[in-house]
């Protein structure tokens, strides 16, 4: 069996079609993990996807030119000096391959380069695989939780991890 090589890179405006494709796949595959819905996102214009790819901090994982995963990072206004990690998704055929860790590492490096000392995320309480993955990476529950705006049946748990290497 040959090694499968994945490349993780920051998305740009030209990646809008790939971003749209992997995001819509994610919303179908694991709808409870995201604050938006497939139906709403399907209605986004091409210009909106272009803007998202160009202006937001998305990272894409690719294998042989095919996008296999995504993740996003952002500023955390609630806690100065910290950042958020959002929207992690890996296509089912690439799960267990190390792609998820590569995507998270990309956000870690980006956040550190921005001067962040901690990284926060929200994880849906019903998605135990994601919670376990984040705990394995050293994320800890902050004790804060709230209901998802678009679906009050879903509870989001807040986690954080230090980015300062000891």
Helices, by number, come to: 5
* CATH level 1 name: Alpha Beta
Helix content: 25-40%
Calculate the terminal CA-CA distance, rounded to whole Å: 38 Å
In short:
Helix content is 32%, strand content 32%. The protein is an alpha+beta fold and 166 residues long.
Index terms:
166 residues; alpha+beta; Aminopeptidase; seven-stranded mixed sheet; 7 strands; 32% helix
How are the secondary structure elements laid out?
Blueprint: E1 7-10, H1 16-29, H2 38-42, H3 46-55, E2 57-63, E3 66-75, E4 82-90, H4 99-113, E5 118-124, H5 128-136, E6 140-147, E7 155-162
Helix pairs in contact: 1-3
Describe it for me?
- By secondary structure, this protein is an alpha+beta fold.
- It has one domain (7-162): Aminopeptidase.
- It is built from five helices and seven strands; from the N terminus they run E-H-H-H-E-E-E-H-E-H-E-E.
- Strands 1-2-3-4-5-7-6 form a seven-stranded mixed β-sheet, with helices on both faces.
- Helix 4 links the parallel strand 4 (82-90) and strand 5.
- It is globular and about 35 Å long.
- The model has no long low-confidence stretch (mean pLDDT 94).
